[in-house]
Design goal:
alpha/beta; binds glutamic acid; globular; 14 helices; 5-stranded mixed beta sheet; 6-stranded mixed beta sheet; 416 residues
Length: 416
């Protein structure tokens, strides 16, 4: 994780937007801080007979427009500042998509790679036992995020159901299909981002069939994006990176073979004997599109931004660009599809999952994708329109659209 404080970054972005929208001080004061921050200690019996206590967080940023919504991360370097920033971005993410949801985020400081399945289950159930009173289908609805998955969601949903004495599938989203998950949730973040890329390409007259792509971060969203960008548009993926470095082949990479190599060796590095590049070197490659999918907040800073040659950056990860980096990219004419717009496909399908759980009626994959496409396309154009109207960059425009909605909700509810 980089050294920038992600929450300070999120606050700076918000202040920037407050100026554009000329918000009253009282409104800004509410929006600058989470409504509630909870820290819990979770004791877990480890396989070796010892007990270890883990620290867990849930930050409930703003619920003016609906229940708090957002993932739970398991990460050894988790900090409250990261969770706070991510909970703020969830608020703007749901608002820019016009979802009837607020924003929240959770995390546990732990290293899931070093834990057994049993330990992870006990930790996940412990998190719910510590927090269940503050969660619920119309209170706060968690989801998977970095190093959490459908299995963890299923354990959490089960624990909450046991405590409540009845099945509560709607407690959280990103569940396996058999217990109330939605079709299409798995690759929804990547797919949603690519729908916005398609719209951006139309705007910029960029022929996606001939475009070259670098993917930063070959985790969940990044590897789905690599496969999908070829399948949906015929673009050529020429570079990919992970935490150990990057690889580049101007002739294009065989993504299935790179995935197999990563599965075997735990990294994309070393694939076919290609030279290992640093992330910053990959950022400066002569490509048309960069898909930033690495969980590395603030990586595109004032040093990296001037080296970018790409025409479009799709921010599939949260917070990859610093405000200084943003200003440089905008000046250089790089079209940034900002994180909480670009990666909103995940939470959008999470919202569809909530609806399906409430109705006890499940949709087809085609239904999910069609609705997701319409929602992402509409939101991209709303943001583009604001960016032209106010003559501001796409991130500022996304803030303007999102924050204006949250403020309208707060005002009509009488908070300010
Ligand atoms: N963790 C995902 C995100 O950051 C999804 C959140 C959700 O589905 O609630 O957008």
């Amino acid at each position: 994780m980089s050294k920038v404080n992600p929450f300070e970054m999120a606050q700076q972005q918000l202040l920037d937007c407050a100026k554009i929208l000329k918000l009253d001080q009282g409104v800004v004061d509410i929006l600058m801080q989470p409504q509630r921050q909870i820290q819990v200690s979770i004791p877990v019996k480890m396989d070796d007979g010892t007990t270890r206590v883990f620290q867990g967080f849930r930050v409930q940023y703003n619920n003016a427009l609906g229940p708090y919504k957002g993932g739970i991360r398991y990460h050894p370097e988790e900090t409250i500042d990261t969770v706070r920033a991510l909970s703020a971005w969830m608020t703007w993410k749901c608002a820019v998509l016009n979802l009837p949801l607020g924003g929240g985020k959770g995390g546990i400081i732990c290293n899931p790679k070093e834990m057994s399945k049993g330990e992870l289950e006990r930790l996940s159930r412990g998190y719910i036992r510590a927090l269940w009173k503050n969660l619920g289908p119309d209170t706060d609805v968690p989801a998977p995020d970095v190093y959490t998955d459908g299995q963890i969601m299923a354990w959490m949903m089960d624990e909450y159901s046991v405590i409540n004495g009845k099945n509560q599938f709607g407690l959280l989203t990103g569940k396996p299909l058999i217990v109330g998950g939605s079709l299409g949730r798995g690759d929804a973040t990547a797919k949603g981002g690519l729908f916005t890329l398609r719209e951006a390409a139309k705007e910029l007259n960029l022929d996606l069939k001939k475009a070259t792509v670098a993917i930063l971060g070959f985790g969940n969203a990044g590897s789905f994006a690599a496969t999908l960008v070829q399948k949906m548009f015929g673009s050529k993926v020429v570079a990919v990176t992970d935490s150990k470095g990057g690889i580049y082949d101007a002739n294009g990479l065989d993504i299935a073979a790179v995935s197999a190599h990563k599965k075997e060796t735990k990294s994309v590095v070393g694939y076919k004997g290609l030279k290992t590049l640093t992330n910053n070197e990959v950022m400066a490659l002569p490509v048309d599109i960069i898909i930033a999918a690495a969980p590395d907040e603030g990586a595109i800073n004032e040093k990296v931004a001037p080296t970018v040659k790409a025409k479009v950056i799709c921010e599939l990860a949260n917070g990859p660009t610093t405000p200084e980096g943003d200003a440089i990219l905008y000046k250089n004419g790089v079209h940034v599809i900002p994180d909480f717009l670009c990666n909103a496909g995940g939470v959008t399908v999470s919202y569809y999952e909530m609806v399906q759980n409430m109705y006890m009626h499940y949709w087809t994959l085609d239904d999910v994708y069609a609705k997701l496409d319409a929602a992402m396309t509409q939101s991209y154009h709303n943001v583009l329109k604001a960016s032209k109207e106010y003559k501001i960059n796409m991130r500022q425009a996304a803030y303007v659209v999102a924050v204006a909605r949250v403020v309208e909700g707060m005002k009509i509810r009488g908070w300010v």
